[in-house]
Amino acid sequence: MILEDINKLLQKGEGIRVEYKTAEKGIPGDLWETIVSFSNTDGGIIFLGVNDDGEIRGINPEFISKYQKEIVTNLKNDQNINPPLFLMPSEFKHPEGIIIYIQVPASSQVHDHAGKIYYREADADLDITKNQKQISSLYLRKQNIFTETLIYKHLTIDDLNDNLFDKARSIIRGYQPHHPWIMANNEQILHESSLYRNDYMTGEKGLTLAAALIFGKDTTIHNILPAYKVEAMVRRVNLDRYDDRITLRTNLIDTYLHLIDFVKKHLNEHFFTEDGQRKDLRELIFREIIGNLIVHREYTQVLSSNFIIYKDKIVVTNPNKALFHGPIDSNNFNPFPKNPNIRKFFTAFGWTDEIGSGIRNTNKYLSYYIPGAKPIFYEDDLFKTEIP
């Protein structure tokens, strides 16, 4: 996050997706209730080192590392939060003091803290443990929103590709050398990332659609989603057909890598300096666009995802479960996770940042890559991104 984003959230005040906690005497005991309520509802962001009025009180620099380790340890403890959550608390050196922020995505599962289920309403974390009607509604809501969590009872680990697990560990190691999944076996990765799911409403247990998409053999993916494909084309000269084209019907890891290679083949690199480092704008922009194409797609729809390079623009379209219909105001929008379990992996790979970063970073870097250019994002049943 950048200073401008944080200041906006601090000015906005606490609400259904924003929470402040001072943390002057250690990790506040009610932090876990808020994390669970955010994950059970629509997600949100928690600031430590900020009082209820949005005033930055700061955290002692000597305690930052201790706090971060304590938070990560408790999030992985199923006696504290069940199922465990894998979130990374981040430090931010604000001019008024050091704060820690925790980005909590909406989860595909229902979580509890110490046996109690919490739900976010306005700026409060409500204990709904004894409200069976509300709990049933919550489970049903999760099933309807996140189709990536669909359980395939006859999908087994033999239908997955061992080489993809090794590739995933290698990618994570290059980005986060201390990530717990690096040392985990295949079964542990599936369970800890919620790709193996226990449906407490139906009693079903098994691997999910997300597991097949990330780690499945090509034949497995074709059997589950026979219409699924991603098309990348260049139409600079031949506008009726294409100058170059790739069609992808494979796992999401290789899909991302192939699309990045396609961009590098057909679009110019352009370097600039940021924070004293030389960076490639092409990579910064299209890492976000391709990451969003994969992470936010509605995979149960039969339409293909398309990435088309024209002479004067790039148009990306993606099947989508629309929350509204119309253009997105990049300065004032509320991002919502479409596939939080898939996103976990792409974040661990370093291919996506926190939710909403794709639109924000594309806006930030595009004007450096193409002077005066502004991207267009249109939310609909077919999500559209247009880059001049």
Summarize the structure.
The chain is an alpha+beta fold and 388 residues long. The protein has twelve helices and 19 strands.
What does this protein look like?
- The protein is an alpha+beta fold and 388 residues long.
- It has a 7-stranded mixed beta sheet, covered by helices on one side. It has a 4-stranded mixed beta sheet with strand order 1-2-5-4. Strands 3-6-7-8 form a 4-stranded antiparallel beta sheet.
- The protein has helices at residues 3-12, 31-40, 64-75, 132-145, 162-175, 186-192, 209-215, 218-224, 252-266, 281-295, 340-349, 357-369, and strands at 18-21, 44-48, 81-82, 90-94, 97-104, 112-113, 116-121, 124-127, 196-198, 205-207, 230-235, 244-248, 271-274, 277-280, 305-310, 314-319, 326-327, 376-379, 382-387.
- The longest helix is centred in the C-terminal third of the chain and has 15 residues, at 252-266.
- The protein is globular and about 65 Å long.
- A hairpin with a 3-residue loop joins β15 (305-310) and β16.
- α9 (252-266) packs antiparallel against α10 and α10 runs antiparallel to α12.
- It is built from 12 helices and 19 strands.
- The two termini are 25 Å apart.
Write the layout of secondary structure elements.
Layout: H1 3-12, E1 18-21, H2 31-40, E2 44-48, H3 64-75, E3 81-82, E4 90-94, E5 97-104, E6 112-113, E7 116-121, E8 124-127, H4 132-145, H5 162-175, H6 186-192, E9 196-198, E10 205-207, H7 209-215, H8 218-224, E11 230-235, E12 244-248, H9 252-266, E13 271-274, E14 277-280, H10 281-295, E15 305-310, E16 314-319, E17 326-327, H11 340-349, H12 357-369, E18 376-379, E19 382-387
Parallel strand pairs: 1-2, 11-15
Antiparallel strand pairs: 2-5, 3-6, 4-5, 6-7, 7-8, 9-10, 11-12, 13-14, 15-16, 16-19, 17-18, 18-19
Helix pairs in contact: 9-10, 10-12
